[in-house]
Amino acid sequence: MLCMGMNTPLTRAQLLVRGGAAALAGGAALGPLAAEASAAPIPAGDLAYVRLLVGAELLASDFYEQAITASVASPAVAKYLERAHFNEQEHYASVAGIISGTGALPATAADIDFSYPAGTFESESSISKLALQLEDTILGAYLGALGGIQTQSLLTGLGQIAACEAQHVSYFSTQNGGKFFNLSFPPALTIGQASDALDAYTS
Amino acid sequence: VRLILSAAVAVLALVVGTGGAVAHPERSQGGLIVFAGSSMTTVLPQIDSGNTYSFGSSTALGTQITNGAPCDVFMSANTSVPAALYAAGTVEQPVDFIRNTLAIVVPKSNPAGITSIYDLTKPGVTIDEAAPSVPVGSYTVQVLNQMGLNSAIQANVVSQETSDANVVAKVALGQVDAGFVYLSDYVINPTQLTLIKVPAWAQPKITYALAIVTKSGNQAAAQAFVKEILSPAGQAIFVKDGFLPIAAPVPTIAKVVPKAARPGKNIVVSGTNFGTTTSVTFKGVPAKFKIVSGQVLKVTVPAKAKTGTFTVANPAGTASRAITIG
User: Fold this and answer.
1) Nearest to A24 among B197, B284, B320 (CB)
2) Is the pLDDT of residue A203 over 80?
3) If you average pLDDT over residues B179-191, what whole number do you get?
4) Which residue in chain A has the smallest CA separation from B206?
5) Chain A residues with at least one Cβ partner in B under 8 Å
6) For the segment A184-193, what is each residue's pLDDT rounded down to a tens digit?
7) Cα distance from A199 to chain B (closest Cα, Å)?
8) Which residues make Cβ contacts (< 8 Å) with residue B211, sequence separation at least 6?
9) What pairing do the DSSP bridges indicate for beta strands B260-261 and B102-107?
10) Closest approach of chain B CAs to the CA of A72, in angstroms?
11) Which of B205, B279, B318 has the CB atom closest to A23's CB atom?
């Protein structure tokens, strides 16, 4: 049920290989966002939002990588962790591509040290619990960006990512005993709220 | 009162040290003459107390060296000033030796109730920062631009200083509501200040570089001092005082032999920067590995490995390569 890659259909093996390649590219654009970045100047306020989203995707990728490495999830959940990891890597490549498209360097995994509450990776339930918190925050960050970003040409791509993150929220909501569908209007976070929430996971 | 006095003394010591007017003892008596950014005021004497240190703005110290001030080793809070001196032939090839993080400090009592960098945009908040001509000031502007906050926050800046130490002193004395400094400035003053983090996603890359002055008559001693700074013991003292170690280079994978392997079998991975490898994983499944050298890893394919990619990780990052299992 988690979101597809941008050039679907691909086999699972192709997707995984491409996910690895995306991580290696460290900012190479997979989606339409980088092309938009190089097409017209992007206001500083919009780039600030995008930098926040780059940080959010790095956090999500790091979290899923650690969750997968912990090897405590059942096969049924593990496949969703892998899929979510892949999605976040594609999202990172796309939003980082916006920054690269302006001639600047996007943040990479080596730039940020993430930290998580003690015991996060000790069980499937603790992983699912934090996954839901993170995905909720990241969805809120994208929704806030959609409301705050002025560059119209970026909105479709960011909206696609928000839709994917909402799927992540839905899956981990059920894993935590919640509902597939919840709020009709999930809350959008201001850039300050999103930044403060995400920074709780950095050391 | 004691806190205020100690802060005042610290500022006085800094000003005296920065001015360059202090008569340095003979090198044989005072060790090397080291010019260093003021953020290293506390840490360097812990590493080597036998030198004569002059602390101040890295930019100003660089100018003094250019103008012929006697100096053996220059330790800058950025890489650009040593690079410029190297280009001019004034210093030897610079070496990156430590990193730092930008932070916000507020007085312990935090009268403005600041809990986030975004609070600094509120009307009436008073902020101190270093001038953009000194490294910590340029890093501040860089962060605020990255966050789209520069205009809003600069409107609340009431003073610009010549060093991070002066910003620390003003905040500690409660003369302003907040100031931009290095994390290391907070770590050595935790009783007087409260730390507010600058978001990781907006942090600039703050790398310090050092260089031996070309005209130094103490080349051998200077090289020994540089080794001391770069040694694990020297780096540990920096880290204790809130600095970050220089990141290890990211690994790269050049070749895998064989290209296909069964679970339980060994593969040999050739590449670079394997000396600090922390994990090897096959689609998330951890593998046993042995560091043969910085260029070679011996990896045992785990029982649950499947065709896809495997990943080599070290503290600086990861490298991945496709592999066929079976």
Assistant:
1) B320
2) no
3) 93
4) A111
5) 13, 16-17, 19-21, 23-24, 44-45, 47-49, 51-52, 54-56, 58, 65, 68-69, 71, 78, 81-82, 107-113, 191-192, 195-196, 198-199, 202
6) 999 999 999 9
7) 6
8) B73, B74, B76, B82, B85, B86, B91, B92, B93, B94, B95
9) unpaired
10) 11
11) B318
Q: What is the ipTM of this complex?
A: 0.74
pLDDT beyond 60 at B41: yes
Torsion angles phi and psi, residue B100, rounded to 5: -140, 175
Question: Which residue reads 């922390």 in tokens?
Answer: B278
Q: Do A16 and B283 touch (CB under 8 A)?
A: yes
A48 to B199: CB separation less than 8 angstroms, yes or no: no
CB within 8 Å: A202 and B116: no
Q: Which residues of A are less than 8 Å from B279 in CB distance?
A: 69
pLDDT tops 90 at residue B240: yes
| C-alpha dihedral, A156 to A161 to A165 to A167, nearest 10° | 70
The alpha carbon of residue A156 is apart from the nearest alpha carbon of chain B, in Å, by: 22
- Contacts of the segment B229-236: beta carbons below 8 A, 24+ positions apart: B229/B47, B229/B75, B229/B97, B230/B95, B230/B97, B233/B47, B234/B47, B235/B98
